Amino acid sequence: MERAGVSHDTDSLAAETASSGLPPEAGSAEVVVRELDENGSYIKHRLSSADAAPDYRSRRIKSFVVREGRLTAGQEHALTSFWKDYGIDYENRLLDLPAVFGRKAPLALEIGFGMGKSLVEMAARDPGRDFIGIEVHTPGVGACIMGAHEAGLTNLRVIHYDAVDVLGNMIPDGAIDRLQLYFPDPWHKARHNKRRLVKPEFLDLVIPKLASGGVIHMATDWEPYAEQMLEVQRADARIVNMDPAGGYAPRPDYRPLTKFEARGQRLGHGVWDLLFRKI
Q1: Among 150, 148, 43, 146, which residue's Cα sits nearest to residue 89?
Q2: Domain coordinates in residue numbering, the chain
Q3: How do beta strands 42-48 and 31-36 pair?
Q4: Are 127 and 101 in contact (CB under 8 A)?
């Protein structure tokens, strides 16, 4: 999502990562088309509407805007050389997760990992857990792959696509042990609130993908969005708030404190974590 849905940056506060432009036109669909060589190495990427599957060209309101930045040499090299090791191409079929990772382990799936620094750190800290990150921002995908390669990770994969489609078409029911949504685009303006990712329809998509006892972990620095997240999840009888007081939770140790978040806290800015468990 970054933006949420999903591309957002877990290495910066939502206020700093919110889209600076207008939302995409209704009905538009830009799909990442990745070209690989015969060995599965990344050659180049482009955005194309012509190759979009019909369901992707629906008039669904997107919660993100794709604004491609320029790839650094390191990001381009990572995409070119290591996509075959860390990348999963979007396909309209369910993933065989044990085949993807070569084992069966708890799975954390993060929607919109930004530049991937926090995701790489989490995967390095928890080698017994597998991680999949979904991101639409190409430089962020390249940066994440670069970080994963430098750390020598084997438990991290990335998908460069719209998370709504990935969840709906690629993730098996009951597969996710922890769903991570950190600092999604809050769409500050009232007329754009409808673009926020967290709403009942999102839970209808996510909850079946959770294992029994699986956790939805959200975090935001935008209090009105935190209130919406709390309201939407409280209203769903399929999940229960893990906070004993029924409100916001302390930041779990596994979620890294980013430098932007730490700076915001020094300035008195709040950050709200929400943890809900599937019953």
Answers
A1: 43
A2: 14-20+30-278
A3: antiparallel
A4: no
Dist. CA 92–CA 47, nearest whole Å: 18
Its pTM stands at 0.78
Q: One digit per residue, pLDDT tens: the chain, 279 residues?
A: 334 334 444 444 443 333 333 333 334 444 444 555 555 445 555 433 334 333 333 444 444 444 556 899 999 999 999 999 999 999 999 999 999 999 999 999 999 999 999 999 999 999 999 999 999 999 999 999 999 999 999 999 999 999 999 999 999 999 999 999 999 988 777 776 787 999 999 999 999 999 999 999 999 999 999 999 999 999 999 999 999 999 999 999 999 998 778 887 888 889 999 999 999
Q: Where are the alpha helices (DSSP H) in the chain?
A: 14-17, 73-86, 97-101, 117-125, 138-151, 163-169, 200-206, 223-234, 259-266
Q: Spot the catalytic one: 185, 204, 221, 273.
A: 185
Instruction: Please check whether the domain covering 14-20+30-278 is classified as CATH 3.40.50.150.
Output: yes
204 among known catalytic residues: no
3-state secondary structure of 135: coil
